[in-house]
Fold:
Amino acid sequence: MDVPTLWRAALVQLAAVAVLSVILALALPHDFFVAWGWIAGPAAWMLCAAFTARLLRLPMVPTLIGAVLAGLPSLLAVLLNAHWAGAALAVGLFALWCARLRHEDAAAAA
Structure:
């Protein structure tokens, strides 16, 4: 596991999700999220993950697969009305995935 990548991925994904969440919250009415949050949330998460992959120069498809897998446990948090706790968990899991990807890339190149 590449520890610097873990921290960078966590910080970039967290910042991207926070910034995009604020922008969407200011731009769209609450009713939009009630009706369309089930698709808007995952789409925003994947967009932020693609941004993180690009910024950290991680392979795009494996990074997005990791974003999907990291986002799955957050579904339980949403059902328990703890959306932001689920997002924090997803960021941590995603960062671990990215750190593993970087380590595998380094091992393959050696």
Notes: The mean pLDDT is 92. The radius of gyration is 14 Å.
